[in-house]
Amino acid sequence: MIKGIGIDMVELPRIEKIIENKMSFVQRVLTNNEYVLFQQLPHKRQVEFLAGRFACKEAFSKAWGTGIGSVGLQDIEVLKEENGAPKVTKSPHKGNVFVSISHTDTFAVAQIILETD
């Protein structure tokens, strides 16, 4: 049974400015494991990665029904499967979490579906 659905969209130019001026924001958004992946990427992919992860966390909070605050950015971790697909590896949700991330030249969008038994 679906418990919640969330979607969020982030502007890549906004994230690029944040990376250039406020690296502390990057570390507030990304878990230690996500940050390791982030550091291995070239700049353009770092922007897409951070935007996608931020959108995932916002989308999760919407699906959870609380928004960011009741669930923190560090409470949700999005790593990747062996094939590169995103995978939520940490969250307060006890059921299945489905995630999809997409990018254009100017936006990243993420959708989360929370499923319970």
UniProtKB/TrEMBL annotation:
GO terms for cellular component: cytoplasm. Mg(2+) binds at D8, E58. Keywords: Cytoplasm, Fatty acid biosynthesis, Fatty acid metabolism, Lipid biosynthesis, Lipid metabolism, Magnesium, Metal-binding, Transferase. GO terms for molecular function: holo-[acyl-carrier-protein] synthase activity; magnesium ion binding. It holds the Pfam family ACPS. Its cofactor is Mg(2+). GO terms for biological process: fatty acid biosynthetic process. It is found in: Cytoplasm. It catalyses: apo-[ACP] + CoA = holo-[ACP] + adenosine 3',5'-bisphosphate + H(+). InterPro entries: 4-PPantetheinyl_Trfase_dom, 4-PPantetheinyl_Trfase_dom_sf, ACPS, Ppantetheine-prot_Trfase_dom. SUPFAM superfamilies: 4'-phosphopantetheinyl transferase (SSF56214). It is an enzyme of class 2 (transferase). It comes from the Bacteria. Its EC number is 2.7.8.7. Residues 4-98 form the 4'-phosphopantetheinyl transferase domain. HAMAP family: AcpS. Belongs to the P-Pant transferase superfamily. AcpS family. Transfers the 4'-phosphopantetheine moiety from coenzyme A to a Ser of acyl-carrier-protein. This is Holo-[acyl-carrier-protein] synthase.
